[in-house]
Amino acid sequence: MRREGKARVWEKHQKAIPSADEPGGNKWGFVRSCLLQAVAPFTEGIIHKVMTGKGNKGLGMDIRESAGHTSCGAIGFHGDVTMLETQMVVAARNFSMAHYDLGVDNFFCTCVTSFGNYCEIIELWEHEPELLEYTKKTLEETTGRKFWIPKVSGGRPSVVHASDVIYANIKKLAKKAEFSLDGVKATDHLGCHYSKIFPDESVGGGEFPRLLAGMIEAYGGELVDYPERRHCCGMGFRQCAIPENRGYTAACVYKKMKSLKKTDPDCKLMITNCPGCGVFLDAEQGTIAQVMGEKFDVHVMNYAQLAGLMLGYDPFKDCGFNVKYVPIEPLLDKIGMEYDKSKTQKERRRPFGP
Amino acid sequence: MGKLYDELSKDIEIKHSMYACMDCGTCTALCAAAEFYDYSPREVMDIVQSRDDEKIKELISSNKIWYCGQCLSCKQRCPRGNNPGGVILALRRLSEKTGLFAESEKGRQQLIAKRLFGDNMLKRGYTLLATNPIPSHFPELGEDWEYYHEHIKEMREWWGVPMDLENSPGCHRMVPEKDMEELRAIYKATGAVDLMNKVEEGMAKKLGGKEEVEKFWQSYQDNVDSRLYKIKEKK
Fold this sequence. Notes:
Radius of gyration of chain A: 20 Å
Structural class of chain B: mainly alpha
Order of helices and strands of chain B: HHHHHHHHHHHHHHH
Oligomer: heterodimer
Strand content of chain B: under 5%
Largest sheet of chain B: none
Largest sheet of chain A: 4 strands, parallel
CATH architecture of the domain at 3-106 in chain B: Orthogonal Bundle
Number of helices of chain A: 17
CATH class of the domain at 3-106 in chain B: Mainly Alpha
Strand order of the largest sheet of chain A: 2-1-3-4
Shape of chain A: globular
Number of strands of chain A: 8
């Protein structure tokens, strides 16, 4: 009985995501992230390479975007310059373009805050028919476009995140991998807007974080749990964007890093799926070193950069490790990946001269 | 119950975020902002639940509602299914609509949020642009980030994510003008443009005119700290 109960709880935390071998899982429409394009543009480059790469270089998928899609605007929503009504109609426009202009039935977003916002909007449409009608009417009046709602997960209205798509294909990727995390300790940091706003929409929810942990284990790494694993990175929208507030961000990173170091000082790798976490968990280690004199040297990278490294993509040109505070070389040495040692650390990062 | 509460209760976020708070404080125990600031989401829920207009007015005139980092960890853990972070979103909009945001230091930062996220969206279709995280505003990103910014076009091409492509898919593309017109129409029809105008108007009223708002903005740009602008005392 106890096992049945556990199985039932686990079942509740599962999420259907079509893999590349399942119907529709090889052709996706997607929307981009304004945070990634501003602070970590190489991430969208490596997502694209891993998803579309042929043979052992990727999943060989057909992923499409329309030139006219826009940001979902959720950074402006959580930054208090738009209304929820605005978000609904902008989301409906992006969905409509994916289906009617690109001819796709499956849809993912590369930003975790877009994911959370789309989930919120879809739930509101489900619960409040008048908001659905408002959206359809306003979309038609402002853009002349027809409404469409994606049903990606299990045939019900839903969207997925790019990291979900990678997770659905993780066994395949691990088989193709040229490198592994064998002997490497690693932990995960799920974006709050992936796992906490609508836990049922994420793999394992906030309670049983499985998405990135599953990736770490698939590549042969040793997963490390620590007390502040679920604490926010502190990105905080207006908290990170406005420099005078950024102490908030640094304090959150400090709390997490201290907790990880105390639990397992050998764990020097943290995998993320949210654009903000990927940047600030790394960059604020620099602030902390300067202000507190304490160094952590934890490599922070997102799921696509990790997949890129495992598949043997170039750590700098393809994965973009040029602009991290914590230098990537010690990890490359650990996994046995070669890089140009005739160049200095600075030269490796600066392809266009000093 | 008063006018402010009536206005607040019209917000969709309130309807879906505020059920019956039992004051247990779970939200406050796990809140990232409560640890860093003198802030308590439990207190915020308590004030809204009281429906007391005086208390709501004091709250939306203060720094407190701007401390939340919108991680929404509270939503996941509330045993009653409340969403204090969602209540904050509604309070912030009420603060902007009534102009009371301009009464607090953190509230006045909304001019920066509006001119960054809001104006970017209306001009380019993105809340953030490649040219926003400049090294002087993000010194922690380090020297390599400075190098990247000095070679922004070449670096992005080298990474395989060229910027500002026209009539093409891609990262940081130029969204075609006909699509921008659709987006602007949505922002106008759904009240986002009005909300952004309220921020500019509220700042002008507080600082003593549009020229002062520009001085506030310029001071922030030059000093990377909005607090260095001094508000003139009214005679």
